[in-house]
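Subject: sequence -> structure tokens, single chain

Hey, anyone have a minute? Need the predicted structure for the following. Not urgent.
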Amino acid sequence: MNDLLIEAKLLLEKNDLAGSLEKVNHFIVNGANRDGFLLRGRIHYRMQKWGDAMNDYYSVLELDPDNQEAKSGLEMAKSILGYFTPDMFNP
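Reply:
Had a minute. Here:
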């Protein structure tokens, strides 16, 4: 595994989302692969950037259609974006 990806994972564990995102973006620019998109999807998800997370999870699924983590992350992001409270609209 590439050093940039390892550093990005360590920064994510330390909750340094911006630093982790920077490292994984450099990793993806130098050779995008499933692991890079999956990690960036996790980072975007934790940053509550649902659309960006979904795009990364879709990229993972293009490379690995059976990836369960990407499928799960995608469904969770869709669920969050689709959530609404009907009571707010009909008081």
